[in-house]
């Protein structure tokens, strides 16, 4: 790998994998991708029994821009001999396990992925990026980078001293395999992960707890809005319109659109409610289940058994409770990767919140020389909207990045538009001028 790469992909989650999968069709670009895991493995800590994708399987790594690609989910089904069985099963959604297996199958077929490479630091020598690994391997040089090392699980400040087997983020759940039999378990966070963890506890996947206490800051256990007009936020046209808005307006919109990306799947809510109802019929004693929306964890005193200080936003009261185990479903935070050297960080433009300023083609704004780009995936919720951390538009974003890198339109990125005129540029709408001339025409007839 002595020859400098045209593109080095840092991290091989679904988003950089999508870029790598499309690059298979662009042999003229010399590229390589690196990940610290020993092989592709999608969020293994949250592979709970029965969990499903929140996205259509057609929104896979490639189909939206290259339906002819051999790396599609449909080709995976055909190659695995499951196409007809899959259609007959008529599943409400693909399981996360199957989609993870699909992505691992794609990864297996690509020659430019390098696993077992933990990126230690990345620097720029004025002409090339240098990627150094913790392993004793040669540093890699590249003209362009794509940052794809994902987000960091968010742990509230007061929980940090107690991180371990008794208090952990949900992303570690299936890796830790906790035995919660007879324990008082508190789940903090009312999004999809919180719901999946509570359902899993109710099913007794980790033993039968003495109690399950679910806290959510949200006013209720709120559904994901998957209705068609909301799904317009997950179209290229909307993302481009959003990107052009002033920063303050973008922040407000993202906040207002929270439930379009962070709500709980209606299927999960239904399964949860039905399970709770059956539990009630059977006496509801073991485990004791307490569901508390409008509650936020103020502080956690440990070690286990933990004392939780909880604020009730409905009546302003503070209460306390005790837990033997705390599972934090507290989401993720976006921050600049630690491996970027201080000198490189200083050259990157960030907004007041420390977010990278990303151009429409997902290049970070910086003062580097022409022809040296630093792209970033899953880093643009503030700039590209709520679709950015989701898979819905991942292959479209990959296409935008590859087209920009190649300097030509190798994949179609325009033309697949929604039904809403977000930008005021729908040619079917009469403009003010058109209306005036129509009026003049009508008047002249009378
Ligand atoms: C449980 C869960 C379920 C989800 N389900 C859906 C869904 O159904 N639909 C949807 O649209 N979105 C879903 N998402 C959101 C999103 O699609 C996923 O989080 C997706 O995995 C993001 O992909 P990514 O490539 O940005 O990051 P990640 O998947 O986090 O991958 C980042 C990769 O970078 C590697 N890495 C990190 N640091 C280094 C380093 N220093 N050196 C080398 N490698 C490194 C990691 O090992 C990892 O493989 C889900 C998210 C979660 C957490």
UniProtKB/TrEMBL annotation:
It holds the Pfam family Lys_Orn_oxgnase. Its cofactor is FAD. Pathway: Siderophore biosynthesis. InterPro entries: FAD/NAD-bd_sf (IPR036188), Lys/Orn_oxygenase (IPR025700). Signal peptide: none annotated. One of its GO terms (molecular function) is monooxygenase activity. Keywords: FAD, Flavoprotein, Monooxygenase, NADP, Oxidoreductase. PANTHER family: L-ORNITHINE N(5)-MONOOXYGENASE (PTHR42802:SF1), MONOOXYGENASE (PTHR42802). Belongs to the lysine N(6)-hydroxylase/L-ornithine N(5)-oxygenase family. This is Lysine 6-monooxygenase.
